Amino acid sequence: MNTKKEWVLPNLKEAQKRTKQQVLIQRALFEVPEAARNCGLNKKFYLRTYGCQANERDGETMAGILVQLGFTQTEDEEEADVIILNTCAVRKNAEDKVLGELGQLKRLKVENPNLILGLCGCMAQEEEIVKLLLEKYRYVDLIFGTHNIHRLPSLLLQAMSGKERVVEVYSKEGDVVENLPTKRFGKIKAWVNIMYGCDKFCTYCIVPYTRGKERSRTIEDIVQEVEELKEQGFKEVTLLGQNVNAYGKDLYGERKFAELMRKVALTGIERVRFTTSHPWDFTEEMVDVIAEYDNIMPFIHLPVQSGNTEMLKIMGRRYTSEDYKKLFDYIVKKIPNCVFSTDIIVGFPNETEEQFEDTLKMVDYCKYDNAYTFIYSPREGTPAAKMEDNVPFEVKQRRLQILNEKVAGYAHERNEKYIGKILKVLVDGPSKKNDQVYSGYSEENKLVNFTADHVECGDIVEVEITEARSWTLNGKKIDRN
Ligand code: SF4
User: Fold this and answer.
1) Would you give the DSSP letter of residue 85?
2) Backbone torsions φ then ψ of 448, nearest 5 degrees
3) Pocket flag, ligand 1, residue 208 (CB < 6 Å)
4) What is 365-418 written as a DSSP string?
5) Which H or E run contains 58?
6) Domain locations in the chain as residue ranges
7) pLDDT at residue number 144
8) What's the CA-to-centroid distance between 96 and ligand 1, angstroms?
9) What's phi and psi for 367, nearest 5 deg?
10) How far is CA 110 from the centre of its chain?
């Protein structure tokens, strides 16, 4: 029987440490203990993923493992034998949502004591959260982290057969684990991890603690995965990492993202995207490669966070507002049709009105097509959480509103330029709001709703844009014959 002594608890101080130790590529680390084989036969699992694409991709790995154990997936938590919440720690309200969900799930656990309730993802990497779960959410059976997903068969078996809770969260990231099972949630678009972790330590961000140090997969493994996806009929891959532009530094001693993109583009897959970029690591060579290949999409998410250099310094972003504009200008020069989105934080500790004005000026300069805007939210354990959170909440709210109005204005203005133009759209299927209308994304990552006689999910069709809204475009399919 599992005892408390066997719990492996997260430790933020350990998670913060970075060593020079070379990360290994582990190809045979995943194993299913004899006793766990078929432990899911005639059983169902329910998986809910919160947060970013890295979490979505982790969810596909967990689903792949559970299917291999014999489970089938259900969308109805009421009929599940195993429920797993794959969580996000990036903002406080995301955490509150998960804790609220756990509260709701207690009823199911009371009705069915054999139900296994698990929590994993970034929240599981946080000391304070695990403490809270152990004290106040005693009905959570299984807690594991982002670094030991490959251990899921053993951990689940332990939880299913034991009477004590199972807690195994590694603070250190460990190696790159290849050959994990995967259940892809889409048939047309796929996420492809190219690296894990982040070494930037922006002062407000919890990710370097929850996801560990930067670890790149090999170019060969990534290209092979893309080739297999292409063979299976996938049309689009998104290369994933917290900071894709740093790809290769840990493994090859230098940035290799340009080379990787080139090789992925040469597989001939229809569309290549990537996320997330850090302006500091974005080299001109990378921009040149994006410009060179038609199948690398002209869309870049380029988080700016603030338009004020002093603020950027306090945030630990490692670039000035001038550096950012220089990079932006170079991209526009090389890729004139490039579409940009960004992330912006308002109300960071000590942010003055003038500094906020600089952020507005940056939005005026870049005229982003989209921006994910947030009120600063302190994350326990980060340097910013020790700063006095001294911008009054009403001021933060007002700044956010002003910013959002500006962003929406530019988004609409940018979209209007597409009226009368023809865009290539990868069809997702009938529109969510109207099944007489189809929807999909253009190369520029614009959501396009359009009328057509008949198209199939996965087709790439030409659509003439007839109407622009702030966040979507409307149009009709062009028939060339
Ligand atoms: S680059 Fe900064 S904001 Fe992005 S994940 Fe790393 S530490 Fe967080």
Assistant:
1) E
2) -120, 125
3) yes
4) HH--SEEEEEE----TTSGGGGS---S-HHHHHHHHHHHHHHHHHHHHHHHHTT
5) helix 53-68
6) 4-168, 179-416, 422-477
7) 97
8) 21
9) 45, 60
10) 33
Q: Report the C-alpha gap between 109 and 117 in whole angstroms.
A: 8
Distance from residue 202's CA to the centre of ligand 1 (Å): 6
**Measuring CA to CA, how many Å separate 190 from each of 48, 121, 426?**
18, 20, 13
Kindly report the CA angle at 301 between 392 and 438, in degrees rounded to 5? Answer: 110
Residues 222, 262: Cα–Cα separation, whole Å: 12
Question: Which CATH topology does 179-416 take?
Answer: pyruvate-formate lyase- activating enzyme (3.80.30)
Residue 205 Cβ < 6 Å to ligand 1: yes
How is residue 296 annotated by DSSP?
Answer: B
3-class SS of residue 343: strand
Cα 70 to chain centroid, rounded: 28
Q: How far apart are alpha carbons 74 and 45 in whole angstroms?
A: 6
Coil, helix or strand for 319?
A: coil
For tokens 């709001």, name the residue.
Answer: 433
| Closest by Cα among 156, 151, 85 to 124 | 85
Measured in angstroms, how far is the CA atom of residue 396 from the centroid of ligand 1? Answer: 22
pLDDT digits (tens, 9 = 90+) for 248-273: 999 999 999 999 999 999 999 999 99
What does the pLDDT look like over 331-348, one tens digit per residue?
999 999 999 999 999 999
Biggest CA–CA distance in the chain, Å, is 71
CATH code for the part of the protein at 4-168: 3.40.50.2300
Topology adopted by domain 422-477: OB fold (Dihydrolipoamide Acetyltransferase, E2P) (2.40.50)
- Helices and strands in the chain, H and E counts: 14, 21
* Pair 57, 85: CB distance under 8 Å: no
Q: What is the DSSP string of 111-164?
A: H-TT-EEEEEEGGGG-HHHHHHHHHH-TT--EEE-SS-GGGHHHHHHHHHH-SS
CB contact set of 395 (below 8 Å; sequence gap of 6+): 347
pLDDT in tens, 21-32: 888 999 999 999
Q: Determine which residue's CA is closest to atom 8 belonging to ligand 1.
A: 205
Query: Taking residues 309-314, what's their average pLDDT?
Result: 98
Q: How many CA atoms lie within 13 A of 114 on its CB side?
A: 8
In short, whether 118's Cβ falls inside 6 Å of ligand 1 is no
CB 277 less than 6 A from any atom of ligand 1: no
CB of residue 312 inside a 6 A radius of ligand 1: no
